[in-house]
């Protein structure tokens, strides 16, 4: 089996591989780039595994006219910039001792040992520079079956980094077979090690949840999170019931997935703090929740909040009520979003000033909205 694609034949990427292989070292694509290429979905980051030690990677890259950056040298990772694109080059590793995210590792030359320390079988796939695939742990069978499976013992993998609990559900949402369900052994391992989630940084939890919620349909995976207690552990008070209706409404209206919109559907206590949201995201999340609970008609929502936020509010409102979206709502929303209040402050002066001016403007605006934006400036004055 061979991979194909512009990413693997790109001269900049092949230059990184050649710098290693010409010196007698291995250069193997690994992880997400191989997985995605096999699934025929876009390849993002390019990771390369090698038996060359980090100092040798730096020396060889420099000699080839490339730019090595020691981004994670203690763990064997050198970012080699070639053609303006970063390539993560990591020396084969084997865990000696693990204590959460910070494992003690030794560098080696054994591909199988390197594969066994990874999280899921579908991430332990390698490919030579010519695209020929190496599958040391049966990852292709799992990838073909859309089965997310821990390598070896799930509990062991989770103890190495408790974020892998969340990654398991995210990978199922992105690459798993929803109809086949989730691996029962993996679910049991996740449920048995919930306490480890408390030790994770909230930034990492928030980033992982964002990735999960941007999957095409995360509802089955998030439902499994709730069933195992994972969702409550990271987001007390969250409820998955409105997520599936929201995903359905998104598909019906050709609305792209959005993590904040879906997070608003889940709800929960202290979301901004627990997921370390930015100020902008915190403000928008509150806006979506408040707008979805408001009773104003679609046209007024469009006028007050705009087409984008307004559509999110309408979808959220329908999902939270488990109701269909009014087929006229999108057009009414756009009509409101394009409307412009025809009366200006100057039109009411000097008859009105100060607070009285503001109140009169608000009264006229309310009359204009109630008319369906039909009343003109002369009518209102």
Automatic annotation (TrEMBL):
GO biological process: tRNA processing
Organism per entry: Roseovarius tolerans
UniProt keyword Transferase, yes or no: yes
Official protein name in the record: CCA-adding enzyme
Pfam families, alphabetized: PolyA_pol (PF01743), PolyA_pol_RNAbd (PF12627)
Tree of life domain: Bacteria
Cofactor: Mg(2+)
Gene: cca
UniProt keyword annotation of Metal-binding present: yes
E.C. designation(s): 2.7.7.72
Key words of the record: Magnesium, Metal-binding, Nucleotide-binding, Nucleotidyltransferase, RNA-binding, Transferase, tRNA processing
Segments forming domain Poly A polymerase head: 29-149
GO molecular function, one term: tRNA binding
Domain tRNA nucleotidyltransferase/poly(A) polymerase RNA and SrmB- binding per the UniProt entry, residue ranges: 183-239
CDD domains: NT_ClassII-CCAase
Family: Belongs to the tRNA nucleotidyltransferase/poly(A) polymerase family.
């Amino acid at each position: 089996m061979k991979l194909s694609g512009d990413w693997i034949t790109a001269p900049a990427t092949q230059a990184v591989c050649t710098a290693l292989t010409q010196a007698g070292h291995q250069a193997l694509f690994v992880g997400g780039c191989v997985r995605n290429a096999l699934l025929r979905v876009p390849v993002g980051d390019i990771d390369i595994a090698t038996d060359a030690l980090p100092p040798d990677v730096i020396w060889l890259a420099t000699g080839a006219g490339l730019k090595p950056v020691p981004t994670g040298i203690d763990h064997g990772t050198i970012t080699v910039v070639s053609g303006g694109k970063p390539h993560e080059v990591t020396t084969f590793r084997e865990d000696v001792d693990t204590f959460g995210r910070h494992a003690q590792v030794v560098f080696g030359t054994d591909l199988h040992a390197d594969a066994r320390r990874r999280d899921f079988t579908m991430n332990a796939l390698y490919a030579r520079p010519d695209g020929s695939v190496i599958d040391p742990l049966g990852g292709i069978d799992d990838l073909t079956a859309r089965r997310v499976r821990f390598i070896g013992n799930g509990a062991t993998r989770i103890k190495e980094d408790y974020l892998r609990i969340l990654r398991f559900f995210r990978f199922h949402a992105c690459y798993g077979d929803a109809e086949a369900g989730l691996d029962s052994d993996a679910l049991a391992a996740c449920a048995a090690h919930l306490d480890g989630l408390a030790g994770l940084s909230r930034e990492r939890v928030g980033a992982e949840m964002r990735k999960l919620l941007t999957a095409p349909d995360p509802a089955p995976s998030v439902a499994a999170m709730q069933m195992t207690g994972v969702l409550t552990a990271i987001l007390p008070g969250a409820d998955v019931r409105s997520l599936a209706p929201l995903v359905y409404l998104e598909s019906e209206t050709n609305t792209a997935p959005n993590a904040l919109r879906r997070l608003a559907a889940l709800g929960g206590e202290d979301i901004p703090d627990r997921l370390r949201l930015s100020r902008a995201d915190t403000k928008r999340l509150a806006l979506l929740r408040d707008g979805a609970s408001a009773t104003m008609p679609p046209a007024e929502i469009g006028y007050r909040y705009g087409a984008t936020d307004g559509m999110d509010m309408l979808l959220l409102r329908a999902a939270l009520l488990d109701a269909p979206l009014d087929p006229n709502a999108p057009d009414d929303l756009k009509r409101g979003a394009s409307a412009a209040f025809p009366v200006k402050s100057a039109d009411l002066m000097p008859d009105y000033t100060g607070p009285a001016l503001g109140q009169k403007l608000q009264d006229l605006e309310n009359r204009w909205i109630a008319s369906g934006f039909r009343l003109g400036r002369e009518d209102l004055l």
